[in-house]
Each structure stands twice: as structure tokens, then as C-alpha cells.
């Protein structure tokens, strides 16, 4: 895997680290391909949780505009539109993997998250954010529309009206405001970000993985279906969860007044 993205699997936790600190983890083609491939690797059943984080002072500032403008000039010269296929080829598979992966994903947001970088953080299930970090939708500022799933994730996090405001009028959103809006789940001092995000992710990696997968699925389903349909989905998922080995372990541990040790199945 390319050095632009680092991958580590330890005790069921896959840590995926964006690693272009000198470029504020801007997404060039190499980084996008590496991140997409890392998330595909994290589909391994041995992975029970994923931590997405970054090196340096930024989480990810989105598209690498230096590379982007060069590709746009090539498109103009040869009359093609291949540059914008990056949404289909890279961003969409990345966001799909983050949102549909049957295991929890934690984003450890160490610094500014802008454009697609913010989109990737919002596609995670839980966001631990450094108090010095910030978010910015960015797209309208460069005459683009939302991508990286943000038109789906952002309204679900903060509501349609606030999402429209942040997309139409991009601005820096502090960590505290992100928490107040519902984007950040937890805000911690910057020097505690790495430790806290890893601790949250490790706890999830030791939990009932199949139940977490069902929770993700039910939340996604409920956001776009009626109450009656959602109740039916809850019934289906609860039957599945009730048949899991982890449920049996949890019930037995409860009866014995012991702490359950989940196996992730």
C-alpha cells in the first residue's frame, strides 16, 4: 500500500492513517486510490472496528487542487472530462465503504477537515475531534457541488436547513461549534486526540460486532423509510442479532454477573 495512506491491524482494530502531512493530507490520485484500497482491506472479517485518522496538522483538506488544475488543463487541451470521474472512481467507493461497512468506523479528526475530507469524517459512525480542529464544506467556494456523500450525511447530522446554510455559505466551523451542531461526538484537547480516538475505536473493536453492524444498518434504513417499514427492519435485524454468539455470551455473563467477552460474531 502506498505511503500516502498507512494501514495497521492490531487486535481487531484497523487504523487507516492519511499520510501526506506536508500537503495537509490533500487528496491526490495516489492518496485516493490508497484510501479506497485500505478500506477494501478493512472489509476483512478479522477487522472489528476501523479508525480513520491522519498525520500532521490537518485531517484532510479535500481535493489536491494543484494536481486538479493540471488535470483540468489536460482535459481542456484534449477535449475530455476525465478529471471529474474521480467522484465515481474514488470518492463514491470510499464513502460507500465507510457507511456500509458492517463494523463501526471512528474518525479521529486531528485538524482541519475540508471538502471531501469533511465528507469522509461525516461518513464515519463516530467523530472524535481535537479542540483545535475545524470543518469546512468548501465546495461552493471553488464552484463545485457537494460530493463525498455530504449531501446525504450532513442533513442527517444537523438537519436540512443548517446543511443548506453550510453548503451555500462555506466557512470554518470550530470544533466546539461542530459539537454543538451535532457533527462532532466528542471534542478533546489536541494533545489527547490520538489516545482518545484510539481508545474509543479499541472499545468498539472489543464489542459485539454483529450488533454494531445491525445498528448501522437500522439507522441507515430508518432515515429513508416509514415507521412501519422500519419496525419490520428492526424485527428482521433483532432476530439476526438474537441468534449471534455474542448475544448468547452477553446473556450468560449477565446471569453470572460477569463482564462479557465478545468474540465479534
UniProtKB/TrEMBL annotation:
GO terms for molecular function: lyase activity. Transmembrane segments: none annotated. It comes from the Bacteria. Keywords: Lyase. The keyword Lyase applies. Coiled coil: none annotated. Gene3D superfamilies: 2-enoyl-CoA Hydratase, Chain A, domain 1, Lyase 2-enoyl-coa Hydratase, Chain A, domain 2. This is Enoyl-CoA hydratase.
Amino acid at each position: 500500500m502506498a505511503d500516502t495512506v498507512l494501514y495497521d491491524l492490531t487486535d481487531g482494530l484497523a487504523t487507516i492513517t492519511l499520510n501526506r502531512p506536508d500537503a495537509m493530507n490533500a487528496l491526490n490520485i495516489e492518496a485516493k486510490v490508497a484510501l479506497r484500497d485500505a478500506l477494501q482491506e478493512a472489509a476483512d472479517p478479522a477487522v472489528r472496528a476501523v479508525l480513520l485518522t491522519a498525520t500532521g496538522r490537518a485531517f484532510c483538506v479535500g481535493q489536491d487542487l494543484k494536481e486538479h488544475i493540471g488535470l483540468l488543463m489536460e482535459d481542456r487541451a484534449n477535449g475530455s472530462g476525465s478529471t471529474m470521474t474521480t467522484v465515481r472512481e474514488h470518492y463514491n467507493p470510499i464513502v460507500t465503504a465507510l457507511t456500509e461497512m458492517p463494523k463501526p468506523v471512528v474518525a479521529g479528526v486531528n485538524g482541519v477537515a475540508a471538502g471531501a475530507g469533511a465528507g469522509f469524517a461525516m461518513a464515519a459512525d463516530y467523530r472524535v475531534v481535537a479542540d483545535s480542529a475545524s470543518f469546512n464544506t468548501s465546495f461552493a467556494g471553488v464552484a463545485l457541488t457537494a460530493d463525498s456523500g455530504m449531501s446525504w450525511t450532513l442533513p442527517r447530522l444537523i438537519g436540512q436547513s443548517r446543511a443548506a446554510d453550510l453548503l451555500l455559505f462555506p466557512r470554518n466551523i470550530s470544533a466546539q461549534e461542530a459539537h454543538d451542531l451535532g457533527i462532532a461526538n466528542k471534542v478533546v484537547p489536541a494533545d489527547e486526540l490520538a489516545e482518545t480516538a484510539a481508545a474509543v475505536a479499541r472499545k468498539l473493536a472489543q464489542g459485539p460486532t454483529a450488533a454494531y453492524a445491525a445498528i448501522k444498518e437500522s439507522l441507515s434504513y430508518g432515515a429513508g423509510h416509514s415507521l412501519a417499514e422500519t419496525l419490520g427492519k428492526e424485527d428482521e435485524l433483532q432476530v439476526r442479532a438474537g441468534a449471534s454468539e455474542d448475544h448468547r455470551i452477553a446473556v450468560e455473563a449477565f446471569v453470572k454477573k460477569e463482564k462479557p467477552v465478545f468474540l465479534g460474531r
